[in-house]
């Protein structure tokens, strides 16, 4: 019988600022306002755009797989009419492969991966709402749509040069989403070494883009006002160990070894 013991949780909280317009798509049928071609996802209760935790986590995982060279061995898309599978991801097929690529312990594997999987994925990423000051600022402005702008683009036929215009809804540059919360669970002392890799995944996301239309300028983000907190063992409910309050990601990257040693010392009590 396997035993899984939670030793601690590292909570990374902060905000995400959009440095260029952000488009994370919603359902056109359910969420379109003003008949734009590509609407953003919104909270159905208040109509405000938000960043789904799955979008941020999926982006960090995808970039981390490319960074580590993890083989894309699992198809997750039904493919085209000819049956060609176009979307593939990495999932470890053995304990050796699980240990070789740190994307597996951080982001997790599928439930049918095999009996050799002893521990769950370490990372939880919460949905990130629109930050209060940004919400008030956008609400007071005459944006094209509530809280968002409409960007016109045109697809150009390569032979005839005919243009087909379309409307893309985006959250404007300068908008802040928060609070952001990344929850990293530690099940063994060696898990502290994965924290540096988590910071790498965050840096990869900053250097790339979030959401769609990234090659056309959308989706550049920055993590800001980051705080790291550790909850451990018997003091889990009562004591919070906090460090690196309200810093940028580059500061955490510079102190990644110090972060690892500090979390290890928290585990040691």
Overview of this structure, please?
- This protein has 269 residues and is α+β, with helices and mostly antiparallel strands.
- It has one domain (8-55, 119-268).
- It has eight helices and nine strands.
- The strands form three sheets. It has a five-stranded antiparallel sheet, sandwiched between helices. It has a two-stranded antiparallel sheet with strand order 2-3.
- β8 (221-232) and β9 (241-247) form a beta hairpin.
- α2 (53-68) crosses α6.
- The model has no long low-confidence stretch (mean pLDDT 89).
Order of helices and strands: EHHEEHHEHEEEHEEHH
| Main sheet characteristics | 5 strands, antiparallel
Number of domains: 1
End-to-end Cα distance, whole Å, is 28 Å
Q: Tell how many strands the DSSP assignment holds.
A: 9
